[in-house]
Amino acid sequence: MKWTDKQQKVIDTRDRNILVSAAAGSGKTAVLVERIIKMITDEENPTDVNQLLVVTFTRAAASEMKERIREALEKMEEDNPNYLNVQKQLSLIHNANISTIDSFCARVVKDNFDKIDLDPNFRIADENEIEMLQSDIVEEMLEEYYLAADDEFMELAEKYSTGKTSDSIGELILRMYKFASGQIEPEKWIKEAISVYDVSSKEEMEQSKWMQGYLELQKNRLEGILSQLNIALTISESEDGPKCAKLLRLLLTSYRR
Ligand SMILES: Nc1ncnc2c1ncn2[C@@H]1O[C@H](COP(=O)(O)OP(=O)(O)OP(=O)(O)O)[C@@H](O)[C@H]1O
Ligand SMILES: [Mg+2]
């Protein structure tokens, strides 16, 4: 394969961090595979494939990666059956750390469970189990809070329970938790979110960033309603239009206010 100059540069660069960002299907994986092949078959300074750590986000990407490295090695072996190092790398590849980040972390933990005081029989929960555990925990926690009946909590419960479902605060807590978990620094984000409410007057609240955004949003919505009402008024004032101009004018003045 004839690599482009940029691809070749990525393949050959060593001893520094490289960030490769390129369009879908433009050859990122191919270049990464080639880098790995070059490293493990280097004549002077070869690295064994099981000494590398290659992590991906999905299982599919990890197995694609492993497969493509294996194919490249097999092709080299075909072209040169006496290439001993290639045979060695092919025998090592099933033990190589080419996996998802999650499974790599699980492996590190499993290999070191004795150092972190963890039951070696631990396993990774699936998404459904995690959701059930989270709901259970929130439920238990809310029960405790309801029993303690702390004033601040009771006020919160009263304001945020919609009445239809008793667990709506629980849902709200979990939703916020999930949203916060998606932020770069979840705890920092939560603290910032709280600080927004930490105002002493109505004026101060109106000056806050989120309130400005909220007011802007409401202003746009109102303008939308006003323009719809104006259109409706024009229609109702036309010759055979519905006779509701009076009502519409009333609505218009109240919305303008
Ligand atoms: N310089 C090149 N010349 C010819 N073919 C190339 C070149 N670079 C990559 N390809 C081919 O393009 C195809 C897509 O490459 P690859 O799968 O590596 O892309 P990718 O950027 O990883 O894609 P994705 O974003 O889907 O993961 C492969 O068949 C690869 O062999
Ligand atoms: Mg790819």
UniProtKB/TrEMBL annotation:
SUPFAM superfamilies: P-loop containing nucleoside triphosphate hydrolases (SSF52540)
A GO-annotated cellular component: cytosol
Species whose genome carries this gene: Eubacterium ventriosum
Binding site for ATP: A22, A23, A24, G25, S26, G27, K28, T29
Identification of the protein by name: UvrD-like helicase ATP-binding domain-containing protein
GO biological process, one term: recombinational repair
InterPro entries on file: DNA_helicase_UvrD/REP, P-loop_NTPase, UvrD-like_ATP-bd
Domain UvrD-like helicase ATP-binding: start-end pairs: 1-257
GO molecular function: 3'-5' DNA helicase activity; ATP binding; DNA binding; exonuclease activity
Top-level taxon of the source organism: Bacteria
Keywords for this protein: ATP-binding, DNA damage, DNA repair, DNA-binding, Exonuclease, Helicase, Hydrolase, Isomerase, Nuclease, Nucleotide-binding
